[in-house]
Write a structure and sequence with these properties.
This is Probable succinyl-diaminopimelate desuccinylase. The protein is built from 9 helices and 18 strands. The strands form 5 sheets. A 6-stranded mixed sheet has the order 1-2-6-3-7-17. It has a 4-stranded antiparallel sheet with strand order 11-13-9-14, with helices on one face. Strands 4-5-18 form a 3-stranded antiparallel sheet. The chain is α+β, with helices and mostly antiparallel strands and 381 residues long. It has helices at 14-22, 34-46, 111-131, 152-160, 209-222, 269-280, 305-315, 330-336, 362-379, and strands at 50-57, 60-67, 76-81, 101-102, 105-107, 139-144, 168-171, 180-183, 185-194, 198-199, 236-244, 250-251, 254-263, 285-292, 295-296, 322-324, 342-344, 359-361.
C-alpha cells in the first residue's frame, strides 16, 4: 500500500484511517513521526485546513491545522500525538505495524495509544465538512511529536505562543470513551549524594554515599502526603532508579536515585523541591529532570454540558466524570491555551498502552467518531 498519499475514502472511515496510521512505524525513540504527520497534514489540507508546522528538533514536526469560524468565537480544539513506544522484545501475535483487524479489535503498536483517537477526530471533521458549507465556530487540530518522551512537541508549541485560544480542548487519548476531566502532573527529580572513598575493610576511613541515599529514601517512603483531590486521590512519590559505587571493595563516594512524583493540579512543584531539600538535608543535590503540571476542569463548567449530554444520549446513562493518574499533552496545552476547559476522551482501554499485542476495539473507534462529530456539530456547525 502506498502510504504517501491519502485516499478520499480514508477521510470518511475512521477504522480504515486508523489502520493506515498504525502502518507508519513512528517509533519514539528515535523519533520517526514525520512521515505519519506529513500524511495527516496533506489529508487535512485537502479538507480545507490551513497547516502550520513547527519542529522542536530537526525532522520532529508538530502540526497545527486550522479551520476558521466567526472571529468572535473561540475554536473547538482536538489534539493527539503520532509517536509510539518501541515494540519490545516479546513476539507479537500479529506484526505490530500490519494493523490487522481480528475479533473486533484493531491490533498494532499505536492502535490504542493513540492513533485510533486521531483517526476518529479527523474522520469526524471530514464528515462534518461534507455536509456543512461554513463553520460558525473554528476547528483546530494539534498533532504532536515527542509525547512519549516528555510531551516535547506540545511544550514546544506552548513555548512558541502559537496556540491561540480555545473554547474546549479534547485530548483523544484512550479512556474507553469515558470523560476524564482531571489528571495528575509529574515532577521527576534526580538526587545525588557524595561521600569519601576508602578501602572497604576500613569503612571508618570513608563516607558512604550509598548509606546517605538509603536514609533519604527511607524518609521519603515514610512520608504521607496530606492533600486529596476528589478524582485523583493524593500526591504520590516513587523511587524509580538507584545507582552507586564502582567496585565491591571500596566505600562508594557517589550514589544517585530518581523519584517520580505524581502531583495534584494544585501542587506547587517548587514547594515540593524545597520540601525535599529540607527532608534530605543540605548534602542532597537535586536535579529536576521533568516538570509537568496536572489539570482539573470544573465538573460544572458550561463547556462540558454538550459533551455530557451527547454521551448520555449515546449510552442511555449519564457518564461518570473520572480522573487519571498519568499525564498527557494536556500538561503543556492546558496552560498554553490559558487553562481552557479540557476533557481527555478517546477510544481504547488505557491499560493497553505500551503493551505487547496492543489493540483497540473497532466499536470504540466508531463510537468515538460519532462523539467527536456530535461535538463538532454542536460547537461549530
Amino acid at each position: 500500500m502506498d502510504l504517501s498519499m491519502p485516499d478520499n475514502i480514508l477521510s470518511h472511515d475512521a477504522v480504515v484511517l486508523a489502520q493506515r496510521l498504525v502502518r507508519f512505524p513512528s517509533l519514539n525513540p528515535p523519533g520517526n513521526e514525520e512521515p505519519c504527520i506529513d500524511f495527516l497534514a496533506h489529508l487535512l489540507a485537502g479538507l480545507g485546513f490551513s497547516i502550520e508546522t513547527h519542529e522542536f528538533a530537526p525532522g520532529r514536526p508538530s502540526v497545527i491545522a486550522r479551520l476558521l469560524g466567526s472571529p468572535g468565537l473561540k475554536p473547538l480544539v482536538f489534539t493527539g500525538h503520532l509517536d509510539v513506544v518501541p515494540v519490545g522484545a516479546t513476539d507479537w501475535t500479529f506484526p505490530p505495524f500490519d494493523a490487522v483487524i481480528a475479533d473486533g479489535l484493531l491490533h498494532g503498536r499505536g492502535a490504542c495509544d493513540m492513533k485510533s483517537g486521531v483517526a476518529a477526530f479527523v474522520t469526524a471533521a471530514a464528515r462534518l465538512l461534507a455536509s456543512t458549507v461554513s463553520l460558525r465556530r473554528g476547528l483546530v487540530f494539534i498533532l504532536t511529536a515527542g509525547e512519549e518522551t516528555g510531551c516535547q512537541g506540545a511544550f514546544d508549541l506552548a513555548r512558541r505562543n502559537v496556540l491561540g485560544e480555545a473554547e474546549l480542548l479534547i485530548v483523544a487519548e484512550p479512556t474507553s470513551n469515558q470523560p476524564v476531566v482531571a489528571h495528575k502532573g509529574s515532577l521527576r527529580v534526580g538526587v545525588t549524594a557524595r561521600g569519601r572513598t576508602a578501602h572497604s575493610s576500613m569503612p571508618q576511613e570513608g563516607d558512604s554515599a550509598i548509606s546517605k541515599i538509603v536514609s533519604w529514601i527511607s524518609r521519603l517512603e515514610a512520608y504521607r502526603f496530606k492533600g486529596k483531590h476528589p478524582l485523583l486521590g493524593t500526591t504520590t512519590a516513587v523511587t524509580t532508579t538507584i545507582s552507586g559505587g564502582q567496585n565491591i571493595n571500596s566505600v562508594p563516594d557517589i550514589a544517585r536515585f530518581t523519584v517520580d512524583f505524581r502531583t495534584l493540579p494544585d501542587d506547587d512543584h517548587e514547594s515540593i523541591l524545597a520540601w525535599m531539600q529540607e527532608l534530605f538535608g543540605p548534602e542532597a543535590q537535586l536535579e529536576v529532570i521533568t516538570d509537568f503540571s496536572g489539570f482539573a476542569t470544573d465538573p460544572n463548567h458550561p463547556a462540558l454540558i454538550p459533551l455530557l449530554t451527547l454521551l448520555s444520549k449515546i449510552s442511555g446513562v449519564r457518564p461518570t466524570l473520572m480522573g487519571a493518574p498519568y499525564f498527557t499533552d494536556a500538561s503543556a496545552l492546558v496552560p498554553g491555551f490559558g487553562h481552557v476547559a479540557t476533557v481527555v476522551i478517546g477510544p481504547g482501554h488505557s491499560a493497553q498502552c505500551h503493551k505487547t499485542d496492543e489493540h483497540c476495539p473497532v466499536s470504540e473507534i466508531e463510537d468515538a467518531t460519532r462523539i467527536y462529530e456530535g461535538l463538532m456539530r454542536h460547537f461549530c456547525a
